[in-house]
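We read letters as residues; the integers encode the fold. Take this protein.
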Amino acid sequence: MERAGEGSGLWVFGYGSLMWNPDFPVAAARRARLDGWHRSFCMRSVHHRGTPERPGLVLALDAAPGAACEGVAFAVAAGAEAATLAALRERELVSSAYLETVLPVALAGGGTVAAVAFVIDRAHVQYCGGLAPEEQAAIIAAAAGGRGPNPEYLFNTVAHLDALGIRDGELHWLAARVRGLLGLTPAHGADTES
């Protein structure tokens, strides 16, 4: 396995907004899979997609036996590793609900890299795993924060999963339900499939 920071450079695993807004210099991007974790709206957002008074929901990696999360592994441009880590820590660790870790990520086409990934701290007050899908949809439809409306975050994530050919039934259902709650038409029919 190639190691992050050892010869192969720094790799970062994106599964939510990092897929469509990495905001760091990228040398390469590869579709990738992380085993033992699933993408879940299990973190209350009080900064980026919600407020302390009206929290939104954002995605986090939540551990689950037998699960797998499809996303994107980014190779950080040479020379930008330290600045990238600093920027990611400022962005992702704003409330300490994420834990920065390095995990083995399988690259599409073969090979495995050790990639920085931000996973949920289940002991943190913002952790909210197990919310019913209907409750998630209602929260997302009504929330907005410093980086914009919560529905935008969901819709952008689903659009980028679609572009990558990644099917995530839970997120596609949520996108369709939130569109319904907001009175919006389905996006190219992509959100309506189960």
In short: The CA atoms of residues 45 and 188 lie 28 Å apart. The longest helix spans residues 150-164.
